[in-house]
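User
New here, explain this?
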Amino acid sequence: MKMARVPYLDRENLAPENQDLLKRNINLYRTLAHSPNALRRFSGLGQFIRFDSKLDPRLRELAILQVGWLTRSKYEYSHHIKISRDFGVSDDDIRGMIAESEGRPSDLEPVIKAALRAAREMTTDLAASDATFAELAAALSTEHLTDLVITIGFYNAVVRILETMQIGVEDDYQKYLEEFPLPSD
């Protein structure tokens, strides 16, 4: 495993007014804490996506897992396997996401399949196709559709930060990679 490109910070490394940034003591935040104001804004959008967006949490988490799976981001993928379970994603849902990614059929609902396709297209082709966007627009409100696009775009940024900074997966999350391995390149 590669070492992170900058040292992980702990609460005591931060000024008192920034120590709250590490209330979630995860390597991503411990790295981004080198820029406290950026972490505060970054974490604000992440908190909106997770707790304030009206987008169906199961759909959201499967789209995030799709980004992590497709980019082979061990950190994002392992963290969101854990997080997704807290929001109602089942192991069968995760297996369905993998099947869809590999071009195999799944029992996932059409709107979930379209969201996964949008995540794949936005990750590999920069944007969702007209057909995928139209399918989602027919199934979701404009607010939900906008939140989905923001979510996919945000997590495409997150995986690029994780990989560029070479942020390592914490030991507690390794088991998720063993349970649902990423494909090898």
About this structure: DSSP finds nine helices and no strands in the chain.
